[in-house]
Write a structure and sequence with these properties.
CATH architecture of the largest domain: 2-Layer Sandwich
Largest sheet: 5 strands, antiparallel
Distance between the termini: 34 Å
CATH class of the largest domain: Alpha Beta
CATH topology of the largest domain: Beta-Lactamase
Structural class: alpha+beta
Radius of gyration: 20 Å
Strand order of the largest sheet: 2-1-5-4-3
Number of strands: 10
Strand content: 25-35%
Number of helices: 9
Number of domains: 2
Shape: globular
């Protein structure tokens, strides 16, 4: 187990000082790479960054790079532990001022966590200091367009929703069936017309899957829409084979809860 020197954590105690959009932790060798953890960054972008920086990362033992990419700034920190190369990618908006010492501190903590065989949840808690989860989600329903409830997570104080998730899933599926002329079928468009007092159901259909978010206040979190889109991408990426050959077994989707916990405090 490798343990680095203690690092200063003051900037991580105030997540707003980081102002990051995303972080990705990647391990790689000469023959393979593994995206250990990502939050706030599309996997397609991480794969692009790996292709761009891989030869340099493999050649050098340690380094830091900064690159402008359109409206975004990419920070790359990489290290070598025996025969394994550990890379950490950060994304921020170009017009945001990032405290670089805080970024370096976070990298060392992430490296320590990885080398100490930290769990997914422990790495998530560390990254959550820099990129806080959204708190406005009351419930998430993931439903096939044929009406099967694939995954559900409901806030504990919403017991009625938890007890009746199958009925609610059928209700949502039925609404979309009768609304195809309005929102289009499998277009990925969002319907924002189901309002319940101070709450709102936001529904998105993509690749034959309905994602229904019950949101308390859509305007509070600047990241909530982006987190919703990232969650959809990760679900479809993680379960593409299961969806293509779906046999009615929904237990295979239970592990998606940890992805939901990355983006939403529910």
């Amino acid at each position: 187990m490798l343990v680095l020197e203690n690092v200063h954590q003051e900037t991580l105690e105030h997540p707003s000082s980081m102002d990051l959009l995303g972080v990705g932790l990647v391990s790689m060798t000469e023959k393979r790479y593994n995206i250990v953890f990502s939050k706030g960054i599309k996997r397609s972008l991480i794969k692009l960054l790996i292709r761009f920086y891989r030869s340099e990362i493999l050649e050098k033992k340690e380094g830091k790079r900064i690159k402008l990419l359109g409206a975004y700034t990419i920070y790359v920190h990489f290290y070598t532990i025996e025969d394994e190369h550990i890379s950490i990618f950060y994304v921020s908006e170009t017009n945001k001022l990032i405290k670089y010492d805080g970024l370096c501190s976070l990298s060392k903590q992430l490296l320590n966590s990885y080398c100490s065989n930290a769990t997914f949840s422990e790495i998530n808690q560390l990254c959550n200091r820099a990129i806080p989860s959204a708190k406005e989600l009351s419930a998430l329903f993931v439903i096939s367009t044929t009406g099967h409830s694939l995954f559900t997570k409901v806030r504990k104080n919403k017991k009625y929703l938890a007890d009746n998730f199958i009925i609610i899933s059928g209700f949502i599926s039925a609404i979309l069936t009768f609304s195809n002329e309005v929102i289009g079928k499998n277009t990925g468009d969002t319907l924002q017309a189901i309002n319940f007092e101070n709450q709102q159901f936001l529904l998105t259909v993509k690749e034959g899957v309905i994602f229904a978010y019950l949101i308390e206040d859509f305007t509070k979190s600047k990241n909530i829409k982006r987190f919703m889109e990232l969650l959809i991408e990760e679900f479809l990426d993680q379960y593409c084979d299961c969806l293509e050959n779906f046999n009615g077994e929904i237990s295979q989707f239970s592990n998606f809860e940890r992805v939901v916990d990355k983006y939403f405090d529910i």
